Amino acid sequence: MSNEQTDKQxxxxxxxxxxxxxxxxxxxxxxxxxxGHINDTYKVTCDLAGQPVHYILQRINHxxxxxxxxxxxNIQRVTAHLRTKLQAAGVSDLARRALxxxxxxxxxxxxxDAAGQWWRMYVFxxxxxxxDKVETEQxxxxxxxxxxxxxxxxxxxxxxRLHDTIPNFxxxxxxxxxxxxxxxxxxHGRAGGAAAEIAFVEQxxxxxxxxxxxxxxxxxxxxxxxxxxxxxxVMLDEQTNAAVCVIDLDTVMPGLALxxxxxxxxxxxxxxxxxERDLAKVFSRPEMFAALARGYLSEAKFLTAAEREELxxxxxxxxxxxxxxxxxxHLLGDVYFKIHRPGHNLDRCRTQxxxxxxxxxxxEAMEQIxxxxxx
Length: 375
Ligand code: ADP
Ligand code: GN1
Ligand code: MG
Description:
Layout: H1 3-7, H2 14-19, E1 26-32, E2 40-48, E3 51-60, H3 68-88, H4 94-97, E4 101-102, E5 111-112, E6 118-123, E7 128-129, H5 137-154, H6 172-185, H7 195-203, H8 210-216, E8 223-225, E9 234-237, E10 243-246, E11 253-255, H9 257-268, H10 286-299, H11 305-309, H12 311-332, H13 344-361, H14 363-374
Antiparallel strand pairs: 1-2, 2-3, 3-6, 4-6, 5-6, 7-9, 8-11, 9-10
The chain binds adenosine-5'-diphosphate, 2-acetamido-2-deoxy-1-O-phosphono-alpha-D-glucopyranose (GN1) and magnesium ion (MG).
């Protein structure tokens, strides 16, 4: 079943569903919200003595996240830790600064409905918004600071190790192998139409082992990382653009800090949307990279020399890997990322590869920017 079809699944009885969670107020409405590729997200409005109260309701994509209970255990530990640390640092406004899970009335942070779907609810982060495309350097700088602070705050999360919600999520060697399998099988006869993109990847295949190897031999440390630091996974204040809250915590698990930085380079420096078809509009903006490096490095004081040395490379690598994943999904019939038109994943792949080429062209200048920030 393609994700286009999953998207059109019968809507549940929202009033009944929402009432299974420990919310306050009476259900008024549930409307689709945001532009995430994975979960089904709804903004819920309830009425509390004449005042609207908002929540986020999400159907967890359990084809992708195979153990929703383990995933929610991670999220509860992570959000509780963030809240404790923010509170200790004197931060007010905690309901906006860390996601808050609304438990089910029957207990537990998630519930499974009669149709076998997994649902969870969060407090709605008010007066803040996400961006699919960045508008100002200040927004980039703030987003980068927020993800760096997120990594800092989680550095002392007490044991045990978090669950790997998607094992080998950013392993570029395995992502390349999966693409090559998809090309060999070509179940929908789409490989011919993607010959240029396949060649683009093969010319860069050697990039894929670099960070995996440096991690394997102990040069790059494992940390608790977000692993999905695209720009629309951080909420910025509507009025001031100050970072408010890091969201989309499904992939928070042990990983490399570089993967988080790399995904910010991919999304926060892009001049166009992730699925822009006019490739002339797609390139990485150097002033946005400078703002990103400034914001991230102002908080991420914990980075080792080896990590610092790979920051610029990580942007090219993660952009290539996400492109590989879009291409693989296109070849396999669009079973992973939600699509909204035929060929959508191939369009997304093409923008990623155009970004890779742009990052390659600017790599020397970007190295200099990082060096200047580290002085
Ligand atoms: P996906 O995994 O599908 O990307 P997200 O958790 O990122 O799902 O949610 C999709 C969008 O919904 C986000 O980009 C954001 O705009 C919005 N959103 C998610 N959680 C909240 C929240 N707690 N408060 C307000 N908006 C939210
Ligand atoms: C997905 O969930 P969302 O839309 O924030 C994906 C990321 C990709 C991104 C590409 C769990 O992120 O890995 O980088 O799409 N999340 C998962 O836009 O696969
Ligand atoms: Mg998201």
